Amino acid sequence: DVKVTQSSRYLVKRTGEKVFLECVQDMDHENMFWYRQDPGLGLRLIYFSYDVKMKEKGDIPEGYSVSREKKERFSLILESASTNQTSMYLCASSLQGRRRQPQHFGDGTRLSIL
Amino acid sequence: QKEVEQDPGPLSVPEGAIVSLNCTYSNSAFQYFMWYRQYSRKGPELLMYTYSSGNKEDGRFTAQVDKSSKYISLFIRDSQPSDSATYLCAMSARGSARQLTFGSGTQLTVLP
Asked: Which of A37, A113, B58, B89 is at a distance of 20 to 30 A from A62, taking alpha carbons?
């Protein structure tokens, strides 16, 4: 069965802190994604990666960076956390293929910035 | 205008009802269509995946794609209280670097 694991379900941090969100998948998927989900705004893509050490900006990359040193792990970094980054963060992964493959999601990290 | 429009609801139905959830889209290049179910405080779970036009059935769930009308639907037969969740449509064009475009989700409650 597909398994995407996010390291924390709930996280509380302070303004200005550097925050790391970790995601691991065990399906040998090439593609990995970070989204944030906010009421009324839906899922918005922050960054994605289609290979180790590769990254692409999504729709809202400002204030975030990512790291993919190993195929199974994709980290989201909030360089200097701000209150407007309080949100639900979702990690997903998918296979590459000739046809677009569906994404599989983790259970999310609910992040509060105080 | 959003690329994908989805009525946010909320939608309440009695147990056993047939539920129809819909999305419209504007990008004619979309070829891959998905429906996700998201329970409260959980991540989205893939329900249905279809390529191009037509119908796909899986148990009580049927996904329909009408590319000529740029309209997709998810039907739930014999709805159960356990179907209460937010349903997200998602779609993608071949070769799209951004992968998926999501609807904003429809909140469904099935009343016992």
From this structure: B89
Distance, in angstroms, between B51 CA and closest chain A CA?
9
A54: buried, middle or exposed (CB in 10 Å: 19+, 13-18, 0-12)? exposed
Q: Over its length of 112 residues, how does chain B's per-residue pLDDT go in tens digits?
A: 788 999 888 999 999 999 999 999 999 989 899 999 999 989 999 999 988 788 999 999 999 999 999 999 999 999 999 999 999 999 988 766 557 899 999 999 999 9
Minimal Cβ distance to B32: which of A45, A48, A100: A100
Strands B11-14 and B106-111: parallel
Task: Please count the residues of chain B.
Answer: 112
Neighbours of B86 (CB within 10 A): 19
Q: How far is A103 from chain B (nearest CA, A)?
A: 8
Determine whether B33 is exposed, middle or buried from the number of CB atoms within 10 Å of its CB (0-12, 13-18, 19+). buried
Dist. CA B2–CA A42, nearest whole Å:
11
- Beta-carbon separation of B88 and A48 below 8 A: no
The closest CB to that of A102, out of B8, B34, B42, belongs to B34
